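Supplementary Methods S3. Input chains for the assembly prediction are listed below.
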Amino acid sequence: MSPLVELRDLHVVFPRRRGPVAAVKGLDLTIEPGEAVGLVGESGSGKSVTVRTLLGLTGRGAIVEAERLTVCGQDGLRLSGRAWRDIRGSQIGLVLQDALISLDPLRPVGQEIGEALRLHQRLPAGRRRQRVIELLSEVGVPAPEIRARQRPHELSGGLRQRALIASAIAGQPALIIADEPTTALDVTVQAQVLALLDARRRAGAALLLVSHDLAVVASICDRVIVMKDGAMVERGPSRRVLTRPSQPYTKRLLAAVPSAASRGWTLSSPQRQPLPARTVDPAATVLAANGLSHDFKAPDGQVCHAVRDVSLRLAPAETLGVVGESGSGKSTLAKILAGLLEPSQGRVDLDGQPWAPASDRWRRSRRRQVQLIAQDALSSFDPRHSAAQVLTEALRHLGLDPAQRRRRIASVLELVDLSHLPIEASPRTFSGGERQRLAIARALIVEPRVLVADEPVSALDVSVQAQILDLLARVQARTEAALVFISHDLGVVHHLADRVVVMKDGRAVEQGPADQVFLCPSHPYTRDLVAALPRLPEPAPEPLASIPESVPAPASGPTPRPLAPAPAPTSEAFAETPERIHSHV
Amino acid sequence: MTTRLIDPALAPGWPGAPIETAPSAPTDRPADLSATRPAPASARISTAPGDQTTAPDLAPTAQQRAWRRARAASRRRWPLGLIASLAILSVVLTAAFFPHWLSQVDPTATDLMAVNRPPSWAHPAGTDYLGRDVFARIVYGARHSLLIGLGATAISALIGVVLGVLAGISKPWVDTAVSRFVDILAAFPGILLALVVIALIGPGLVNLIVALGVSHIPSYARVVRAQTGQVVRSDYVEQARTLGWGRFGLTWRHVLPNALGVVPVLATIGLGGAIVGAAALSFIGMGPQPPTPEWGAILAESRNYLRQAWWTGVLPGVALTATVIASTVVGRTWQASSERRTP
Amino acid sequence: MVWAAATLTFIAVQLSPGETINTLLGPNSNDPVLRAQVIQDWGLDHPAVVQYLLYFGRLLRGDMGVSYIEHRPVSELLADQFPATIELTLWAAGLAVVLAVALAILTSRPARLGRAVSQFLELAVVSAPPFWIGMLLLAVFSFRLGLFPVAGTGGVRAVVLPALAVGLPIGCFLAQILREGLDRALEQPFALTAQARGMGLGAVKLVHALRHAALPALTVGGLAVGNLLGGAVICEQVFGRAGLGQLAVNAINSKDIPIILAIALLAAIVFVVITTLLDLVYLLVDPRLRGQSQWQEANA
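Predicted structure tokens for the full assembly:
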């Protein structure tokens, strides 16, 4: 049997005003009928462009060249628009990330599936409606007659993703391409969608699964291709690649995945090092919340309980993880703790003094004690401000003279490894990791006692995430600030947190030491969460083992930009950092 | 995902391209990828045992073909529209401030021996029904049209900004009151609102400016209110609150500079609309009275002579339209570039 | 909303310079009989609150006052002229919508050359004053080619050129917005999904993208209504058509304030009615908002 897809030396280039930009650089890819291939890479690796090229939908102005581009037995470089349309939907089906926007939000999902049928099969209208219902029940949508008449926004995330899959398989394609099909989904729903895709494959369809998440790919793919910057880095059977990677990049990628095994160790280099130790005095309390609730009125007049009766306690230098799926109230909790939202009931005490509810005037002088780190760092910077202004603004109320300010800024930049940064530039010109570092620097510069980090690494690639997580652990050990770390990602929280709060529908359903909560959960919801988590195949890459032949030391170090010349910070500022920050705590 | 995609420095291996170091580019790409010469695919790809591919090392490779086509397609184009628009605007401004540089003829001098003459060397745009030089009238008319447009824009922008900021930063009931008022104002179609104002205060140059200014208030007020609200709710204002900034400090440091950045852009685009509105009002006799040269008035006078002398009706209109197009193009280009700067 | 507009006109009259009675009477202010009648009609010898209630009570009965120059009730004068203006605006609106949709579909991405040409022409038409477009149309089609009558109100042929003059700018304006909306919708993932199903680009535009593009166009619909009415008023002058525009200009020239106020009020009513209708259409096009439609009550 001939392969469904055969790519040889694929190049995709986008003409841009400042000169052409290569998205894919010499990729080879073969997909045999019935096999599941995973395409893994971080953002900018060219994986999405590649799958769009397989459908002849690379995008406006894209230039596609290859030694061979065979799709379903036809030469993709010479196909007419008409011929491409015959292939799409009937030979290859596409499943994109978020069905809320990947299905037409203005039309009922049944119509979308029906459209796929109408394009490739001659069926009378009545038979077609019936087939839509069949397809919906095939993908596990309950009450398909009702669901078919609903629009994506009326369905839950899992159901609409299933509807999207139904529309992709309506033409019974021999190949299903799934581009980050579970990225926007909660972990329990993600497991169901992956199982559904796996079932389609067992029914005979080939699958090309594109993801940034190694564990997702590992769970259902036979073969894996790791991409970086438009080129392939490594390929092979998924078990072999994920357990015994041969390329440094793959090793680094695997090592960067936070998990139970990585607790207490750095993530940003394949050779793990122990994280600096913290001493937490469990008897002391810096922040205590009692019976917090927050209600608000939805636009339709209903009262919505975002947070219900949550109590928690935070010791100095402690890391408290808050996990929960979307809508569990974790961000509302973060805002209450940061003093940005008044609780409807309950109270928060900071160092034994009331913190919320409190009048803004009363709170203002102590505001800097609690600092917020947001998910999207860029939007937390005034778009008109340079990096220097961002930091100076934070210092405005501390009454320092200019020389002191400069020293403080230099030392905090040193702390977050940003000393080489052009500080007069706008944060817009920085990379995602640098922006998040700057946000952390701004939070640290006022020497807070508590850091509230709301999904601080969710928007980052896994290798950048690893650097930021290492950084957070490091600065926390230095400054002894307590950290509330809010995340939907169980692995990240397990890696970082001392204690964990599990939230669902506004309630804290379980609370306890991280290992206890994740390894022997007591609440059924926590058990579901942990069970649904996709895992890398065991044995995981040895966290401790140094693999001597595979350590090209300078390239894989934890510093983000070894290319930039190391800056020369004033030795005074450098020496000053830890003591000074300590002295204020 | 796309920001990385378009980063040119992520493509180090292509022939003839400038090699820069990207600030965000991770640096550990496999060593064999950094060769500047395009290597055959198989050489750059580390494959698992038994998964070897072979590609002949023959020119031109797919890579070379792709880059040849891409370079041809990404040639930089001149922003001709913008350049032409700026040129037009500078001519109009010259006409408004130094009309004698462009035409030495008196725009109100009549010559009954040469009425309705077609364009010639002596009269580049012909003469009108009183034998006045149309070109001179167009040139001298620029001052009045531009003055009315600028004045009206200034009035509407100023009042609109005050109302918009007030609504955007105040308590909900103030917001509601101001927004309602603006809604009511907006319910009267612009020209009719201006007509009502003129009916109440009488025609004339200043009154025309006031009338037009009032009729354009809602568009500024609405945009400014929306912008202000957006900034007030933004992450960076929230962040500044955690740093201990109070209401006044936040408004002064963050809200006003960010919310009012759009106003000059809006005003540039709105200037065109104000000029057209002025022309329309003076076309129906509500503006400066004859023989003052003003574009709308000139067009009104020429209406009855279209059959005999088309140039008197067409050429002033061309000048007017070109001015409006130019200010719109400049405003939109400005808008696009400022939108690109703020995510 | 209409109530508020009426109130605003009342306040405007009160605030206008000079005595209210002189404002209302215009040039006839020396006629003692009329003076007495106006004082009685408007209750000018009573405090402002009473005047306001009187004024409003009359409005509710459909009485918009009397033109003291024409010596006829304003409502009668309006009823005479309104149909001609409605005829013109309906033709213009229909033309504008058809033109906008056709242009937007034909010149949205990936069209190249036609797109640039069309964009420039649209910009030119939007930027040109509608009355000048009317003059150009007259010069070409009536004077040169003799295809359409120069002036007049009767018949379909008489309405073609004025409708073009009013409808072209609005059509081009809407085309710009629709095309931007189409371009944006085609970049959305659902457009990619639809194409990946095997749908042609044209079909994706018609079936999926156009509906999304219509949303911003409907939002600015109110603005277009204003332009439509304003354009009609001015263009009636160019083509010598009877209608509200003629009435308004004559009224202003003779300082016939009651007529002007009535016309402005009528325009505001039309505007409010049409924007409310557009809001309903919006809900039809975008069912996502159906659950949460209280915000509309503000317009009722």
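The longest helix of chain B spans residues 134-169. The two ends of chain B are 15 Å apart (CA to CA).
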